[in-house]
Amino acid sequence: MISQEQFVDAGVALSREAGVLDGLHGYFMLHRSRIYGMCRHFGLLEGPLGDVLEIGPFYSYTPFVLRDRAKSYTVLEGDDPAAYPLKPLYEKRKVDLRLVDLFEMFGPTHTASHSLPFPDNSFDTFMCWATMEHFNFNPVKFVREVRRVLKPAGKAYINVPNKASFQNITSLLNGRFEISHVDAYFDVEDYSSNGKKAFYGFHWREYSAPELARLFSKANLAVRSCKTMVTFQDHQQVSAARKIVRGGTRLLAALLPRYGTDVCLIAEKTE
Length: 271
Known about the structure:
Order of helices and strands: HHEHEHEHEHEHHEEHEHE
Structural class: alpha/beta
Oligomer: single chain
């Protein structure tokens, strides 16, 4: 199993190869602890993964780190120019990259298929991390499709921010970010993605652990685990005040796991 230091070194090398070391590499560096922590939490750095489908990895580089453990690896990524520098890397490593618009697939549009572009029972491993919170559509059809494309005994590994986190609760109580969140809508009202005025970067819907477990269980997937964990963004400098808040968050989450920062779910397709 690779160490976090090796994982970060691999990310730096991939960023350099993609030519984004001075740009979008910042996303990886900001989230490196969470990404590596998810890989370890889900046990994906040990043993074979079979046929893998991952949705929305962006610059987490998980397809490249995990590729050698997979029989095949397929990625569905948003068709946004920001992701284009990774195209040559996917091709070189024989990862099947498909640029799609999940809103067009699952949203309330006349042309929506409400289906993933794969046959039944195609994948052993399904991954979707820090992505479902960006869905601006009813997620039920999507989760049903996850079950359909999984092979029997195939597993889904899901990570979302925890709606019931200590940070969210305190933000609501003290009114932090309320104005800035609305202002952000105006800031990107003319953002263009694949020729459309659309911006998918917002968290349209976060989930608590009971909500996420209920969503997958009602879609007839067996929830094997649904836990919270605590992760923080990897800022280069962290103020003393922020360190105190982070320490308090860790302590509270240890005593009351419901209030951790992230929800991590493992669901299995049973007969």
